[in-house]
Q: What sequence folds into this?
């Protein structure tokens, strides 16, 4: 634990947060864990498009190019003087190690120069607490995390206490969307294209639902992705062409049905007071609509952050870091980037 940080629940806090775990560089200043004073995001997606996916070395270099200027601008836009910042938070993992390292070096340097505490933050805790930027959270809560790198169901017994109850055994949902999109001839990132095609489709290619063993909250996406590729290949061998929109719709319906069923079953079993949707795939219209309809029918409260807080951003890292700040739980300055950082181990240690 870092001795620069004390239990601080009564004074306003201004946390500067840095996120560089993948292909977005982002810096934010967040007041009291939920008021966003600035949140700058520089996306590298155009650079990586040419390669059909994120190239780790290129991502690190791009973070280095913009991080210093973004730190300056995020502080300036927030209207907070650097000396009035309470702490410096940074995504410590999971993510691409070289990309994480850029944010960590920048955050440590700033924290040391200003004499502020450092708070190494879990990226998925950030995605989950993006919901705190728009709503007061009620516990126990259930989070459905769906992004390019993660597909998880996380039970929050109380504030900052994470228990992973289900995860993908192979591809993440966003990753499967991107692979199916590529097979349908769409550019990277393909998720939004598949979503749009699915909503325009008149027909549907039926595809399997992957439930795994009875009672399991895990997911598996690679079999479904293979079923899509097989359907396309078999049609080609027969000299026919499948309507891409019908394939997109079949894929989306198969994904959404399993996500919604498992999330709602988890909410029931754990007595969750809210279902929190988060991650880049939370932008998916089919998923949002199906969850909204199902939750309304069952009388469950569903929280979905606005798009800017669903995709990678530093405001969500500031929101998660606040959990540690109010409990005086800082991070040592010798902390390293940790691509395998455990969410459960990152849980808060004490009551606020
Ligand atoms: O959370 P995110 O921005 O980055 C990660 O931390 O992974 O998620 C990006 C992923 C990409 O795979 C992208 O294709 C997917 O989210 N995505 C979508 C949609 N918008 C973004 N997938 C399905 N439907 C969408 N509308
Ligand atoms: Zn993410």
A:
């Amino acid at each position: 634990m870092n001795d620069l940080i004390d239990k601080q629940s009564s004074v306003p806090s201004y946390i500067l947060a840095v996120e560089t775990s993948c292909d977005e560089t982002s810096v934010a200043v967040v007041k009291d864990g939920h008021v966003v004073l600035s949140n700058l995001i520089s996306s590298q997606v155009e650079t990586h498009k040419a390669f059909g996916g994120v190239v780790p070395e290129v991502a690190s270099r791009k973070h280095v190019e913009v991080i210093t200027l973004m730190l300056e601008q995020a502080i300036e836009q927030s209207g907070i003087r650097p000396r009035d910042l309470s702490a410096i938070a940074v995504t410590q993992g999971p993510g691409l190690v070289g990309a994480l390292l850029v944010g960590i070096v920048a955050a440590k340097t700033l924290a040391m120069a200003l004499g502020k505490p450092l708070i190494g933050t879990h990226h998925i805790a950030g995605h989950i607490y993006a919901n705190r930027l728009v709503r007061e959270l009620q516990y126990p809560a259930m989070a459905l995390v769906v992004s390019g790198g993660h597909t998880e169901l996380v039970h929050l017994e109380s504030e900052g206490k994470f228990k992973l109850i289900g995860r993908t055994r192979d591809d993440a949902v966003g990753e499967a969307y991107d692979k199916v999109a590529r097979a349908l001839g769409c550019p990277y990132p393909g998720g939004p294209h598949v979503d749009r095609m699915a909503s325009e489709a008149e027909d549907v290619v039926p595809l399997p639902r992957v439930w795994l063993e009875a009672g399991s909250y895990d997911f598996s996406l690679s079999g479904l992705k293979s079923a899509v590729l097989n359907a396309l290949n078999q049609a080609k061998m027969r000299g026919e062409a499948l309507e891409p929109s019908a394939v997109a719709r079949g894929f989306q319906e198969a994904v959404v049905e399993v996500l919604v069923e498992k999330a709602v079953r988890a909410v029931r079993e754990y007595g969750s007071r809210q279902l929190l949707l988060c991650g880049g795939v939370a932008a998916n219209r089919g998923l949002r609509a199906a969850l909204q309809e199902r939750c309304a029918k069952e009388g469950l409260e569903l929280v979905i952050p606005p798009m800017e807080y669903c995709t990678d951003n530093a405001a969500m890292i500031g929101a998660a870091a606040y959990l540690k700040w109010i409990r005086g739980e800082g991070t040592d300055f010798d902390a390293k980037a940790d691509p395998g950082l455990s969410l459960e181990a990152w849980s808060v240690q004490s009551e606020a």
Summary: The mean pLDDT is 94. The first strand starts at residue 14 and ends at 19.
